[in-house]
């Protein structure tokens, strides 16, 4: 109980200490967007015959007619009230857009991470058990191959092979077959919602849809995860306490899993946290290729047309998730390693 | 509904609003609004080179059962269909029409600038005569007035519904119509997810199609698929029914396979330019512009960028050097002729060339990038050093609006393509669409005169004069009208090339 | 019970095969405690691991025979091995904290070991574990069951380790340096416990250690190893008083005892002749070389490292600083050496206040070259990217403004000669040098620019006794030749007694006692000092 | 460096490579790549930017080994020339972020205190950014010139180097030899830059070689969304991105060859990492 309390306390403290970073991100994005040479008012006032007047109207609508410090103050005030502004591109409130799209991104990223972890950890362990052997080199090569293909290429290739040539995969157009009926939205995660609704066919359809994009992303992150698993597994296999475990005759499985792996898992958690955060932001390309209605592709489109509010909202969201993931990693750390609570 | 009764249309763009008037509306939003809203009138269709295209000259009633133009051309009277109903079942009245048109010319929305070109500027011009009759008054006869009412913007909105959602700051309920359709159109929007998809079902009560019956497809799915190669795969595998924005190379290969129906129509109302800003040196020198016009690798560009899909606007021969027609655009007597180009450069006092930047839009990269590479290579041969700039869309439009780009690729499109309309809107004034920043008094004068010219022959002469000035001054270089390649399942029928350069879903049916 | 015959172990390494054990034969009776001593690298641990089959993957038994209770287990594997491990023979390792799984509770780990060999329920195993904890005399065993290793002190960890090892009643226990890393006081307690448990349960024990004193105190029989070979086997008294083998002789001589002098540590042949012996204390009235007035150090995190520490030193004087781990010895020496700033107090060197110059700027001070330091661990006191030559030349370049060239080379070689470092080693990198060689480089570096005060922070703690002996002797010689003043930090009281005129005893940053070394150790005034002195294991005095 | 040392370095390198075939292959690949980049202008069979539209989109043949692209340019020639730009981008981006990140990180790790906290905050802000989006925004803001792509890539790599250097220096700052350097009269700054940094370099080499690959991928990603280097400059990422769109029309050579080039480069760098550490670390030497 004491340790849980301490962990929570630490997490809380860490959260508070990351607030300035969030604020920094907020301001920095705001400024960065204004530095972009594109003027959203001009872009969006691009109907035929749009003239100065239309541009002015939009500018006023976006609040761009005010001096920069005022804009910033208004923006901060709005954000404080949970209003992230409106997207010119979709015409919706950014908060609403993000809320609708975040589950898609999260579902994809989490699945990818899961696939990556499930394959990377055993591979890493395998490599660590026989360092320098053929297995080790093989694992290294396999993982490195995954990380050296740009995701958009592997994505397009997977589509070409599994959808176009073989027809195994459903059409790569988003989260669910367009003709399927959606389950009542409870979590926003389709594969969970379908399960809750007891619709197994729907679940299977959603899972199939998820497979290729998740695989594309997973391929890209197996390498760092396997690498860190191998490295920390090597350390913990070589450590004194594993030798102790051997000296008292524990079974092989127990030594590898309970003793070595559980100790080796800490850095893996850290890296998984980092990987998760970067994936969430960097899966723009995968989302584009698979027409996945996620937040990253949303932000990319907005960025290209200098639609400020969505980009700002997206970055803030990502930063918040980053902070939350860090907290989570901390808490996991606390659970996985009793020593962490002392530090 | 069965799959056969559904039309699945995939596109790289997205529908971002249900009200086409909202600033920032996309072309896809326009297309959807054609089906979700009705207008008073609509364009007819005609066959051109064996393909159906919209016909500017036939204007038929849509919500109007009939219309009449007074002899002096100052009054247009519309009789509404008595049986027309909004999608919520309430009847369409003249009040609704007046409110909608008032809104179009007063609210700060896109329709305002458009209707202006048809002399429709004020709410006073619209008068309710009785519940099914409305009268439009014009300050002077304007042949674009009626066509303007067939364009995308003057949608007829269910005014009672809209007013219920109006607020003091937003008297025209713009915020509400953005996300809610309150029209009488052929399709009722069911799901609207900007950036993902729109799903609409057929409005069974709608009967304003050509043979007075509802649209053919029971359901309509408009889906955003950003990756063009994926769109091609979808339609090839039969998962999508229709797509119009494929890459030229994919269209070529799909056409070659012969499994699908491919209808390619040059975009008659659109022109792609290599533009030069006539106020930025050295492009302020007419001879430089001429030199460029004769130094561009037209054929190569056409082949490499468009795979030969479209209508070239170069390589014509004008007998006795005069424009053969008063239409716009017409093919120009320009071609790759480096000797000539060098001569012009010399005349311009720059025999050794100069350096400049050449810009294009990231969104257009698929065609613009090979073009730019070719332009750079060719111009290099006459000493013009070109630095290629690839700009994100918003930056490009901002830079163009601020007249900062000397040399770039751009395109124009006119919904009401008449010669004077093109010249007035794209060659005059300090505004964004005057890409070349042309300021030519003679051109402006003739164009303004032509606007209200009723005599066809005279109009033709004016058009020729404008074309002659254009060629002489070479403000910018029209290069082609790219093709609109509609690729569809062989079963899909009724595709018509529309002024919006989008699909009008109401035209389509399945054999 | 255990018989080992002509055991040979090789390791395949990147540099080819390394023969670590080259023919060891020994035997052990039930209930006997055998000492296995020798210097670092002599193959003690490898012998232990080979017997228990815990060698690294790279290691192989190439020859020999291991018989355990009459059974040949040389090539045992799989299930045999597992039942052998723990149930028949167990091992206790050097660093107890590292040898325990940091993320499992003490109770779980003991229970794991029990469950590996006996069919019990978890609860029964836990109960058994608790009784084991009681057996190793841990205070408050119920509470400790749920504790993690990091929550325990080093001594407690070692007790837990013992509990794990004896959990299945093995008949053979191999304790590989069970007390290195522990305080002298804790060492005694743990060893006593181990001896008692072994006796109670009739376990045969092999005690691996490099501390002859320890072996002498607890073992009935001691074998000495050198470079993978057994060189001598005897009872401790015989061994220490009449060593047969030259290696044993050297080893015995090098181990400091309560009465030994520096000169005794090294066999006659290797003794360095003292040039000028100025045993006399400097005359009264000479100005103080170092005057430390009430300095204290409080770290950023609030820990008080040293509080109100005062001392004085004269030129050529040698002062020892002793105390248990964490008592502030290093902190004090680093403050005096001007590597960190004191939070309060004043330091005068040669009459000048050097405490006022911030440590950040002290490198520019004239006095920098007068105060030099030699560090505890020779392994990390040399820049891995510098050759020995570079290391020694470094202060010359920086503090004496010498340029690279013949003169520098000459000076470096001279220093190397003075510390007895062969010149051909100068081009080597630290990892290519032995511990003793590295220590010499460190000393050469410190004396290169002829300082007046040398601070030595446990300069021999990581060295073997024989190397330590040589280094101590060397230091002593240098001190006398150059009339250097030493501030000598160590936890080995015997060494301090030999090296220092005066000794200061520190405890949690506070001076407990100080005085003339010999007197202080002969007759400690405080309990703390007495405990320190008593805990040092000695080879029993020779029978008269 | 004396000749003794260089020869021992070489011997050591050879030793490491022999013991680790994967690294050896990767090293050979990287070397080949570097040679290719250096001698690119003399190797290309055709002018990489000269178009020949009549010969566009030809499959591999004896004349054009890797086929031709949309403008009839020789894919092989473009590939070879692109190696130059790609390696330049990768190497400069990594060099910039390494130079800046390691120095700042090392100083922070050594000094601790307020500087450390301030920089830590800055790094937090950077880390909290979705990095690829940051790169996109920066390229969009600054214009898609090669320098800007390099800067953007460098900035998004920066936090890793700062953190890494900070951590590595932090654990070493109290080691004997560091204090010894101080006692030998070195200032704090000199200790950090001349003593600590070179010692953390081997560990960072792994990160660097990974980042080299990553930088190339990053540039490719930017190209894919249209923010890559400007045409007609040949660059692998652009070639792959353009070629990827031709997959469905069966013009596989447009994506396959640039894709393979890019892949093998990234693969080499990735696999090189571990070996590089062994080579650079003097402690691994005999
Ligand atoms: N895993 C290994 N690989 C290669 N050589 C090894 C390995 N383990 C030990 N050795 C070598 O075996 C020899 C004996 O080592 P061992 O650990 O037994 O020494 P030790 O007597 O226990 O010394 P210490 O007192 O330092 O513990 C040493 O020279 C060492 O280098
Ligand atoms: N940088 C630091 N920050 C905070 N506390 C420190 C720091 N350095 C030392 N301490 C604390 O100051 C106290 C004295 O430490 P010091 O290193 O001087 O002990 P020591 O006597 O040299 O011990 P040992 O024999 O283990 O070397 C310890 O409690 C230690 O934890
Ligand atoms: Mg040992
Ligand atoms: Mg210390």
UniProtKB/TrEMBL annotation, chain A:
It comes from the Bacteria. It is a multi-pass membrane protein. Keywords: Cell membrane, Membrane, Transmembrane, Transmembrane helix, Transport. The chain crosses the membrane at residues 15-36, 108-129, 141-166, 203-226, 264-286, 314-336. Residues 102-333 form the ABC transmembrane type-1 domain. InterPro entries: BPD_transp_1_N (IPR045621), MetI-like (IPR000515), MetI-like_sf (IPR035906). It is found in: Cell membrane. Pfam families: BPD_transp_1, BPD_transp_1_N. PANTHER family: DIPEPTIDE TRANSPORT SYSTEM PERMEASE PROTEIN DPPB-RELATED (PTHR43163). Belongs to the binding-protein-dependent transport system permease family. This is ABC transporter permease. It comes from Bradyrhizobium denitrificans.
From TrEMBL, chain C:
It is found in: Cell inner membrane. One of its GO terms (molecular function) is ATP binding. It comes from the Bacteria. It is a peripheral membrane protein. InterPro entries: AAA+_ATPase, ABC_Ni/Peptide_Import, ABC_transporter-like_ATP-bd, ABC_transporter-like_CS, Oligopep_ABC_C, P-loop_NTPase. Residues 2-252, 290-533 form the ABC transporter domain. The keyword Transcription regulation does not apply. It holds the Pfam family oligo_HPY. Its main location: membrane. Keywords: ATP-binding, Cell membrane, Membrane, Nucleotide-binding, Transport. Involved in beta-(1-->2)glucan export. Transmembrane domains (TMD) form a pore in the inner membrane and the ATP-binding domain (NBD) is responsible for energy generation. Belongs to the ABC transporter superfamily. This is ABC transporter ATP-binding protein. It comes from Bradyrhizobium denitrificans.
Automatic annotation (TrEMBL), chain D:
Keywords: Cell membrane, Membrane, Peptide transport, Protein transport, Transmembrane, Transmembrane helix, Transport. It is found in: Cell membrane. The chain crosses the membrane at residues 21-43, 87-110, 122-143, 149-165, 212-229, 252-273. Residues 83-273 form the ABC transmembrane type-1 domain. SUPFAM superfamilies: MetI-like. The keyword Transmembrane helix applies. Belongs to the binding-protein-dependent transport system permease family. This is ABC transporter permease. The lineage of its organism: Bacteria, Pseudomonadati, Pseudomonadota, Alphaproteobacteria, Hyphomicrobiales.
């Amino acid at each position: 109980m004491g340790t849980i309390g301490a962990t929570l306390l630490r997490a809380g403290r860490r959260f508070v200490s990351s607030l300035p970073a969030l604020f920094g991100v907020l301001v920095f994005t705001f400024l960065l967007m204004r530095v972009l040479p594109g003027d959203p008012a001009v872009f969006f006032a691009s109907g035929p015959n749009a003239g100065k007047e239309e541009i002015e109207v939009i500018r006023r609508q976006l609040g761009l007619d005010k001096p920069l410090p005022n804009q910033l103050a208004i923006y901060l005030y709005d954000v404080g009230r949970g209003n992230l502004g409106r997207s010119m591109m979709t015409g919706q409130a950014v908060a609403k857009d993000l809320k609708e799209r975040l589950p898609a991104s999260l579902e994809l990223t989490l699945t990818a991470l899961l696939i990556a972890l499930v394959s990377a950890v055993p591979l890493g362990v395998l490599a660590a058990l026989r360092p320098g052997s053929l297995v080790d080199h093989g694992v290294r090569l396999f993982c490195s191959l995954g990380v050296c293909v740009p995701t958009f290429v592997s994505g397009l290739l997977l589509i070409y092979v599994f959808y176009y040539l073989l027809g195994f995969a459903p059409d790569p157009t988003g989260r669910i077959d367009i003709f399927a009926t959606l389950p009542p939205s409870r979590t926003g995660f389709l594969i969970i919602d379908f399960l809750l609704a007891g619709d197994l066919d729907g679940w299977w359809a959603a899972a199939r849809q998820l497979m290729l994009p998740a695989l594309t992303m997973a391929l890209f992150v197996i390498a760092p995860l396997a690498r860190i698993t191998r490295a920390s597994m090597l350390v913990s296999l070589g450590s004194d306490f594993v030798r102790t475990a051997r000296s008292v005759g524990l079974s092989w499985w127990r030594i590898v899993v309970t003793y070595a792996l559980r100790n080796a898992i800490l850095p893996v958690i850290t890296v998984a946290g980092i990987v998760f955060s970067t994936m969430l932001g960097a899966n723009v390309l995968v989302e584009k290729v698979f027409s996945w209605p996620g937040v990253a592709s949303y932000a990319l489109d907005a960025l290209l047309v200098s639609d400020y509010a969505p980009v700002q909202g997206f970055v803030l969201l990502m930063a918040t998730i980053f902070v939350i993931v860090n907290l989570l990693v901390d808490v996991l750390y606390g659970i996985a390693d009793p020593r962490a609570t002392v530090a | 509904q069965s799959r056969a009764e559904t039309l699945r249309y995939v596109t790289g763009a997205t529908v971002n609003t249900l009200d086409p008037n909202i600033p920032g509306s996309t072309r896809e939003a326009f297309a959807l609004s054609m089906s979700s809203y009705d207008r008073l009138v609509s364009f007819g269709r005609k066959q051109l080179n064996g393909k159906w295209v919209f016909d500017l000259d036939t204007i038929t009633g849509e919500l109007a059962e009939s219309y009449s133009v007074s002899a002096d051309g100052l009054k247009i009277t519309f009789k509404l269909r008595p049986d027309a109903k909004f999608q919520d079942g309430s009847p369409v009245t003249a009040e609704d029409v007046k409110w909608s048109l008032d809104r179009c010319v007063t609210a700060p929305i896109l329709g305002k600038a458009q209707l202006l070109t048809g002399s429709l500027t004020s709410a006073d011009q619209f008068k309710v005569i009785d519940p099914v009759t409305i009268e439009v008054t014009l300050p002077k006869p304007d042949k674009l007035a009626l066509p303007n009412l067939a364009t995308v913007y003057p949608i007829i909105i269910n005014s009672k519904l809209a007013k219920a959602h109006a607020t003091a700051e937003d008297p025209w309920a713009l915020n509400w119509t953005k996300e809610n359709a309150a029209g009488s159109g052929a399709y009722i929007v069911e799901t609207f997810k900007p950036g993902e998809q729109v799903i609409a079902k057929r409005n069974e009560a709608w009967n304003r199609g050509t043979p007075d019956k509802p649209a053919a497809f029971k359901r309509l799915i408009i889906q955003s698929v950003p990756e063009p190669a994926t769109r091609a795969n979808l339609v090839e595998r039969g998962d999508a029914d229709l797509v119009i924005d494929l890459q030229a190379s994919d269209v070529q290969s799909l056409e070659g396979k012969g499994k699908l129906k491919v209808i390619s129509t040059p975009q008659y109302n659109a022109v792609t330019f290599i533009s030069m800003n006539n106020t930025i040196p050295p492009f302020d020198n007419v001879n430089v512009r001429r030199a460029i016009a004769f130094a561009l690798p037209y054929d190569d560009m056409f082949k490499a960028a468009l795979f030969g899909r479209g209508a070239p606007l170069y390589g014509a021969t004008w007998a006795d050097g005069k424009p053969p027609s008063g239409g716009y655009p017409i093919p120009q007597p320009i071609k790759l002729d480096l000797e000539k180009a060098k001569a012009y450069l010399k005349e311009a006092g720059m025999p050794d060339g100069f350096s400049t930047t050449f810009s294009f839009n990231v969104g257009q990269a698929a065609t613009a990038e090979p073009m730019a590479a070719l332009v750079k290579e060719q111009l290099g041969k006459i000493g013009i050093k070109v630095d290629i700039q690839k700009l994100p869309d918003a930056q490009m439009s901002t830079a163009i609006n601020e007249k900062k780009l000397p040399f770039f690729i751009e395109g124009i499109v006119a919904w009401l393509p008449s010669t004077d309309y093109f010249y007035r809107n794209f060659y005059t004034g300090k505004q964004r669409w005057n890409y070349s920043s042309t300021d030519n008094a003679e051109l402006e004068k003739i164009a303004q005169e032509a606007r209200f010219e009723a005599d066809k022959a005279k109009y033709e002469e004016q058009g020729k004069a404008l074309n002659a000035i254009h060629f002489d001054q070479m403000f910018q270089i029209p290069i082609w009208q790219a093709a609109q390649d509609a690729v569809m399942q062989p079963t899909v029928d009724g595709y018509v090339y529309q002024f919006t350069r989008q699909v009008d879903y109401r035209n389509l049916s399945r054999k | 019970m255990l018989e080992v015959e002509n055991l040979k172990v090789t390791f395949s390494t990147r540099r080819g095969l390394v023969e670590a054990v080259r023919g060891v034969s020994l035997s052990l009776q039930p209930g006997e405690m055998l000492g296995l001593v020798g210097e670092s690298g002599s193959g003690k641990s490898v012998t232990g691991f080979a017997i228990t089959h815990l060698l690294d993957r790279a290691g192989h038994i190439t020859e020999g025979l291991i018989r355990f209770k009459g059974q040949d287990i040389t090539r045992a594997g799989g299930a045999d091995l597992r039942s052998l491990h723990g149930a028949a023979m167990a091992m206790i390792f050097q660093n107890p904290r590292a040898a325990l799984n940091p993320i499992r509770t003490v109770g779980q780990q003991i229970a794991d070991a029990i469950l590996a060999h006996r069919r019990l329920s978890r609860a029964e195993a836990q109960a058994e574990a608790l009784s084991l904890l009681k057996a190793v005399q841990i205070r408050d065993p119920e509470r400790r069951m749920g504790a993690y290793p990091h929550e325990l002190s080093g001594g407690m960890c070692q007790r837990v380790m013992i509990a794990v090892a004896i959990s299945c009643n093995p008949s053979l226990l191999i304790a590989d340096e069970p007390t290195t890393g522990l305080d002298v006081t804790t060492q005694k307690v743990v060893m006593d416990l181990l001896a008692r448990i072994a006796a109670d349960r009739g376990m045969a024990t092999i005690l691996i250690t490099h501390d002859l004193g320890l072996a002498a105190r607890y073992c009935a029989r001691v074998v000495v190893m050198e470079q993978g070979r057994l060189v001598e086997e005897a009872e401790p008294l015989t061994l220490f008083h009449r060593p047969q083998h030259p290696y044993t002789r050297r080893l015995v001589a090098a181990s400091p005892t309560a009465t030994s002098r520096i000169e005794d540590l090294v066999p006659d042949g290797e003794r360095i002749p003292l040039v000028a012996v100025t045993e006399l204390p400097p005359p009264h009235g000479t100005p103080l070389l170092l005057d430390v007035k009430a300095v204290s150090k409080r770290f950023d995190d609030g820990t008080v490292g040293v509080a109100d520490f005062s001392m004085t030193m004269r030129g050529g004087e040698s002062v020892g600083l002793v105390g248990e781990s964490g008592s502030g010895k290093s902190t004090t020496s680093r403050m005096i050496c001007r590597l960190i700033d004191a939070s309060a107090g004043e330091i005068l060197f040669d009459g000048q206040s050097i405490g006022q110059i911030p440590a950040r700027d002290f490198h520019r001070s004239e006095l920098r070259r007068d105060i030099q330091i030699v560090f505890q661990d020779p392994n990390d006191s040399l820049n891995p990217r510098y050759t020995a030559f570079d290391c020694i030349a470094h202060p010359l370049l920086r503090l004496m403004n010498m340029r690279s060239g013949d003169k520098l080379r000459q000076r470096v070689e001279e220093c190397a000669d003075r510390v007895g470092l062969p010149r051909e080693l100068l081009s080597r990198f630290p990892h290519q040098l032995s511990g003793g060689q590295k220590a010499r480089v460190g000393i050469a570096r410190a004396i290169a620019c002829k300082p007046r005060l040398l601070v030595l922070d446990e300069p021999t703690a990581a060295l073997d006794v024989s190397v330590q002996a040589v280094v101590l002797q060397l230091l002593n010689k240098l001190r006398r030749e150059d009339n250097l003043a030493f501030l000598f930090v160590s936890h080995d009281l015997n060494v301090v007694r030999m090296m220092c005129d005066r000794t200061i005893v520190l405890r949690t940053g506070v001076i407990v006692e100080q005085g003339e070394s010999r007197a202080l150790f002969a007759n400690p005034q405080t309990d703390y000092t007495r405990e320190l002195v008593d805990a040092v294991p000695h080879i029993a005095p020779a029978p008269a | 460096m004396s000749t003794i040392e260089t020869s021992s370095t070489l011997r050591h390198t050879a030793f490491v490579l022999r013991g680790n075939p994967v690294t050896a292959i990767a090293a050979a690949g990287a070397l080949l790549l570097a040679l290719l980049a250096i001698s690119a202008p003399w190797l290309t069979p055709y002018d990489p930017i000269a178009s020949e539209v009549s010969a566009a989109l030809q499959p591999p043949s004896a004349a054009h080994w890797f086929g031709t692209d949309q403008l009839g340019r020789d894919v092989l020639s473009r590939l070879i020339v692109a190696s130059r730009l790609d390696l330049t981008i990768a190497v400069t981006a990594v060099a910039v972020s390494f130079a800046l990140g390691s120095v700042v990180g090392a100083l922070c790790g050594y000094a601790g205190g307020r500087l450390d906290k301030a920089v830590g905050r800055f790094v937090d802000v950077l880390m909290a950014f979705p990095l690829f989006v940051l790169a996109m925004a920066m390229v969009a803001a600054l214009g898609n010139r090669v320098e800007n792509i390099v800067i953007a890539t460098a900035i998004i790599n920066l936090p890793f180097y700062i953190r890494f250097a900070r951590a590595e220096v932090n654990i070493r700052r109290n080691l004997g030899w560091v204090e010894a350097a101080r006692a030998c009269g070195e200032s704090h700054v000199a200790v950090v830059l001349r003593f600590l940094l070179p010692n953390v370099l081997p560990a960072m080499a792994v990160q660097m070689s990974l980042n080299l690959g990553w930088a190339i991928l990053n540039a490719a990603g930017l190209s894919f969304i249209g923010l890559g280097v400007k045409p007609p400059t040949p660059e692998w990422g652009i070639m792959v991105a353009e070629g990827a769109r031709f997959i469905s029309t069966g013009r596989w050579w447009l994506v396959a060859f640039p894709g393979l080039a890019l892949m093998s480069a990234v693969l080499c760098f990735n696999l090189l990492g571990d070996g590089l550490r062994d080579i650079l670390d003097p402690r691994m030497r005999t």
